[in-house]
User: Fold Heavy metal tolerance protein from Wallemia ichthyophaga.
Amino acid sequence: MAVIAIGLRAAPQVILITRYTIPILLNALVLFGLARVYISPPDPQPSRKRYRRVWLFVITQSVLFTYFADLLASFLHFFIFKSVYRNPVIYEHWLALVVHCIGASAAYAFGSLAIAYAVQKNKNICSYVQSFYIISVILELSLLITWIDYLKFYSDTKHLPAIEYAHIAIQSLRVICLAIGSALLVCGVTTTFVRYDSHGNAAPGENSPLLNDSIQYGATSEDTTDTTDTTSDDDTHDAKDKSPSAGMGAFMKRMYQLGDVLWPRGSPRLQTLAFFCLLLLLVGRYINLLVPIQLGKVVEDLSSYSSPWKHLFIYIALRFFQGSGGLLQVVQNIAWIPITQWTDRNMSTHCFTHLLNLSLAFHTHRKTGEILRILDKGQALNNFFQMLLFSIFPTVADICVALGYFYFKFGGVLSLIIASVMFLYGYISVLITRWRTAQRRDYVAKDNITRAIYTDALLNYDTIKYFTAEAHEISRYTTAFKNFQAVEKKVIASLYLLNMAQNVIIVSGIAAGTAVVCAGVAQGRSDAAELIVFLTFLQQLYVPLNNLGMIYRSINTSLVDSEKLMQLLSEHTDINDKPNAVAFHTRQPLIKFDRVGFRYDSSGYALDNLSFKVPTGQTVALVGESGSGKSTILRLLYRFYDVDAGSITINGVDLRDMQQHALRRLIAIIPQDCALFNESIAFNLKYGKDDATDAEIVSAAKAAQMHERILSFQDGYDTRVGERGVRLSGGEKQRIAIARALLKDAPILCLDEATSALDTNTEREIQAAFNELSQGRTTIIIAHRLSTIAKSDLILFVQDGRVVESGSHSHLLSLNGMFAAMWKKQVEGETEDGDHLPKLLNDCSYCSGVTCSRCSNCGKCTSKKCTCAKKGNEDDHS
Assistant:
């Protein structure tokens, strides 16, 4: 017993602290687990691997048995050898062992209840069970090694009392059981941990994997995808959202593909700067090692009454180079600025280029607000690598250096304590942060929705005012913001919980480590200088150790934030140039649609076996009801989509064999709604020809009858047009579109209902400009107002994606078919509205109804009653 007393006097702090710490930490974990199980919702998709309950039961009972055996042996020895325990040191040790056994047994008992409750409620507790067993084995192993180490140091183990052999044997058995359980849980050897029904069958949905085949880094498994209460355009990409893009493997694979964007391979200067920064990083690690050692030398000089000035000067000089404000860090940060700017510029340009190269199908489904938010979050990719290089690597290096120094300077016990604390800190940080990942993902989703509503409201300001929908939009935004704040509250609260857990572990590590060093100082094995070195080193480690959790959270945030950007960058570009695509050019285009079939989705064909030609220099008009496929024809001609069947050719060359830029340079288009950039009028005009001179711009504006109007503005051609041209009228925007098309001087002209939103007078003025613009060009016109296409060489009536009628204006009227019926409705409507056309359609005795061809000037029948100067000129009648 004297040996025991000697050993206990040598290390009362370490042994007692460890004995009392184990039950406290285990019960804290149990309370945390119970709280998590209680507040977490049931698995919506319990397609997870569950651990077989029989294995967990056997392991738990084995561990509990070791605690009961330890407790029983202690009490028996206490009652048999009462006189021994009159020694206060031995009694204090015995009491700590009893508290350890009872407290740990209670933790395992309540932990079993938490597991049973979680299984009953179908809640995921696998990560909690893993962490509980891993932390238990670390704590018990630390206690075992510490106890054996001190007993060996002070006595020959052959003379130890039998009770000590019993305690060591029981403790070893406990560690073995916990190690086996931890290995099974971590490796996932067991396949099911399920709840059974009354017939012995597994409950539904509880017999499939817990984790994906590749465990994800910084992300939860599939069921933690974005959950939103508002339908998003991303709904069409759910399959992509659920892909394991957030996994570290997939993430790093994508990063490798972006290597040319993220690493300046073509710039030796930037590469040299990068290696210089890495060298400064390594020097900084060496200085961090020297600082506490040098301070220890100063203390040694003071203790021996020697002159401390030399060592003090070196210490001050080292501190001048150390830290975030030290010379090394400042030089490193300044040297890294050009690399950061290069990476940011390249990444932003890459994303912008990728967006412009995506197909129209993507852009018709996207939400501008969400895309902008995703691009903002894309900065996380650059932050990830900066944190990896300048935060993770230095932290890991400092920890490894510290552990090595502690091992050689203070022995294995202190190194084991510090290593255990660091492992626990990192493991708990990762565990809780993974739990927070789903909350963070939901937080980002709700934030995107809020931003999208805000942006949509600004883009649709006019519509909101037209329908007095301010209250509705404010209600939508308020509801979305409340949903966002509800998730934000959970994210912030879980962060505070994480900080508390980290602080408990750090304080426990400082207490245990300081106790070991103080014990060495008290025994004369160490001096006060070494205590100062240890505390200084520990203080240096505290900052990166504390930052370790923040770094992991930041990396996890970067991974989550960049997840949608990675999905965006992974969006497939549907329309691509062939490797041998030709840069086709012609001034005499002949367009041919040959049995073209196309559909946007599986709902049905938008175009079905469509065939027609547009001869060189002629005008073909497409008319028909809305949704008949007219605009689709122009989209296919521009090759925003590829045909599903048939072909579209220009002078016999298939569009799919042309370079897209070459094809689109052949075509000028004037859309129904001409969207302009929020720049000057001159900027928007030069979009037709970026190297146009001022004289060419003025000439095009005059031809479009817009020059005088532009000069009436205060800033003339430098007048900003507002968002999408909102400061200009519809007619003014159309004239700018005409001038832009004139500057482009393309051989193919497309007019997509270019006058449908204009009044009659403006339409006539614009029509005159159109006539001049289409001279000598192959022209395709889409129109609802049939009077605007009466002069077309060929009119095609499109219905359900097919051409059902074709011919000249007069020929189609003579057919008395769909075109004639549409013409009749429009003529009658114009007459009823008081327009210039007289109501003679049914009164003409010369033409018998709808076959009547009327003068565009006087409205009378050209066959007999028309007496104006234009009579007899078929091209001037409609």
Observations:
- Residues 808-878 form one domain.
